[in-house]
Specification:
2 copies of one chain form a homodimer. With 308 residues, the first copy, chain A, is of the alpha/beta class. Helix content of chain A is 37%, strand content 24%. Chain A has helices at residues 29-37, 56-64, 128-137, 151-156, 158-165, 175-182, 187-197, 236-251, 256-273, 280-284, 287-301; strands at residues 3-7, 11-17, 20-21, 25-27, 43-51, 67-68, 72-75, 82-87, 94-100, 120-123, 144-148, 170-174, 201-205, 211-215, 218-222. In chain A, strands 1, 5, 6, 7, 10, 11, 12, 13, 14 and 15 form a 10-stranded mixed beta sheet that branches.
Amino acid sequence: MSKLVVVGTVAFDAIETPFGKTDKILGGSGTFVGLAASQFEVKTGVVSVVGGDFPASYLEMMNSKGINTEGIEIVKEGKTFFWSGKYHNDMNSRDTLITELNVLETFAPVVPENFKDAAIVMLGNLHPQTQASVLDQMTKRPKLVVLDTMNFWMDIALDDLHSVLKRVDVITINDEEARQLSGEYSLVNAAKRIHEMGPKYVVIKKGEHGALLFNHGKMFYAPALPLAEVFDPTGAGDTFAGGFCGYLAKTEDLSFENMKNAIIYGSNLASFCVEKFGTERMQELSSDDVKTRLNAFKDLTQFDIKIS
Amino acid sequence: MSKLVVVGTVAFDAIETPFGKTDKILGGSGTFVGLAASQFEVKTGVVSVVGGDFPASYLEMMNSKGINTEGIEIVKEGKTFFWSGKYHNDMNSRDTLITELNVLETFAPVVPENFKDAAIVMLGNLHPQTQASVLDQMTKRPKLVVLDTMNFWMDIALDDLHSVLKRVDVITINDEEARQLSGEYSLVNAAKRIHEMGPKYVVIKKGEHGALLFNHGKMFYAPALPLAEVFDPTGAGDTFAGGFCGYLAKTEDLSFENMKNAIIYGSNLASFCVEKFGTERMQELSSDDVKTRLNAFKDLTQFDIKIS
């Protein structure tokens, strides 16, 4: 069974959407990536940090899904990273109400011994130096390094970001961030510029407008599944990345054709994530649910034109 | 050979984009729909009106493409409809600088005798009463009536729009207009409400984000082809509609499965339209160009997941 190591946040989120409001619930990029990857027969290890206030039951839930949590450091005297946000009516934009970094402020990820030879490494959205420190710990070059980042790091740590990007195979980024990083408005040209920075594969996430995969001139597009109701978009991007990495780890096939499938699986899982608050839907998700929705994706995108 | 009758504008456009600026060039929804449909073996008749200032060479160009222009009334003492617009840097928004309705102000479309039994009618974006008057002239119920409209008519002639919609099979509309017409934010719910108004098929155009086809719970999605440069978006939506109607007229197959193909052809042709100013690219487009790009659409969207 392939190993996937994921570094990211494990956090408390408090979320307000037009549909309701939560107290502190389980969140964090590492959590969403891990839960998505747990849909595949893969050994997934999450590397993160939480405080003494973090319920053991959350870790037990992750373990019950087959997620290895040895790499989640528990700082007894510290408090868990907390984020609170409010979504606007269109669900495409949100305001951050509270960000308490807490134990994340001094987070130095330690990859468990047993995961230092993982085939796939997913570097969640953290300081580029922190991301690089994970790669430094690997005993052999992973088959695939996937990195997620955001405009914040481009603003305050661009040199560090460029430096870690040289060691990365796949970058996942949203459309505005791709434009900021590349200085190009057209996403086709943006991908070209980002290839020159290191990543052979550029995945541009466009939220409700789907995702694009670029690989030196080759392109693939996966739509988001149109839904009657998007209940809570939190974690959808991380779930997408987790589905992508999990599928690649399971199939052990890093060809462009198989990456297309991985992108579809990412969209598939993300379409569930948004149906309930936080990780709720992902916790109860069955493999039958995923299979059924895969058929919905086929109906949505596959056509049969005979070229005469 | 199937007949397609198109009612729409034949106009002068003056366009400014970040790439340059044109004098008065050939434009109009009827023109773009007709040119797109001319890619298929179909008898296309355009019903419109122009002024005495409209060059005969434009009509000759259309005739040379097999487009019947008998239905284009020439008001010798009048001036042709003129629109001028300026696109912003993102190419997704534009300002209208000038709208001179001229001969369009008193336009009463007359369908040529030979097209009154057309299989497919495309009602371009005009006053809903004008659109209805075209249907009144048909000697038999067309197999398919396609209607395009915009927010302007929802604002000033909503009752008339509702009235003509009862006689329509397919509506093409952009996402914001779908939301305005239905009062629903989710496009899935918007399509449901619009089905109740008449159209069994709802095509929602999202510009660079592609197009969605809805049919009572069934959905299909065609992306726009990601391009390095969008030179001039004018007419892309009409070209999309023309490709859709032209393909359906040629294949004479109105099943949902074949409508998927029609949507892909619409996106395919629209991706050429934006490559040059106005109708320039559409005038020189060869069937080989279209075939080659169809393969690009397949590469972009088709995948092969074995569900185990």
